[in-house]
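ok trying this again, last paste got cut off
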Amino acid sequence: MVILLQWLIIGLTILILADVLVSFVLDPFHPVRRNLDALVGPLLTPIRRLLPPVGMLDFSPFILLILVQVVGAILLRFLSSG
């Protein structure tokens, strides 16, 4: 169970980073970008409601990465102690 959670954390981190990087180089209507946005977008929406963009910068992926890492570490500690 712990290994599965670790892979989930790594996979989600890679998806978020890929979505950010692809948003710089691909057209918004490119299929790869649309699919990544479809996967990561629902996770970013609540953060974007609480934290609007600052100028041209959107910090919501950064906040999501921090949340994934913190919640993942807490869950891993909880699962490994039990």
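PB: full thing came through this time. The chain has one domain: 10-81.
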